[in-house]
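Question (not urgent): is this output format expected?
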Amino acid sequence: MVRREVSVAYKLLRYVNSALFAQRMTIDSIRRALVILGEQEIRRWVSVVLLLHLTVDKPDALAMHSMIRASFCESLAQLSGLGPRKSELFLLGLFSLLDAMTDRPLGEALGKIRLPQDILDTLLDASPPGNRVARIFHLVKAYERGEWPQVLEDAGSLHVENGEVSDAYLKAVNWCDQVFALSRHGPG
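Got this back:
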């Protein structure tokens, strides 16, 4: 697929040669780029490319908000002991605005996507109390709204320091800015 789609190949090579990966030498083949990225990073990159394709006729802020949420959720998963599930939490953040992207109710938009039940329940506000995945997402939304007492409570329940939360958010914004600039410019 990457070789057939010129714009996707172009974006992949720009991505792997960007400052995000700090390679000593230029990566000039699709095969080498895929090897360097690894399976998890490829899945993440493909998810972002598809999201950007889905939001091509929507305001850039919608895609950026979703990307920031995805990276923020991923970092918080790592910080709170859910590191093995960080890819799933990345998708949680990425899909959290799928209703606005597709102009369909979230439950309907998620209907054809296979996700772990706790991720799906979190997205649909149907999580049981005490669910750590839901707590992470609650923390993300509280941080976005500037509800600092709630951020402190959620961070404390996840055993994450307040400074780590702020750092994770800034890291997410920086990552989004870099990936968005790489993905939205050039062919395709």
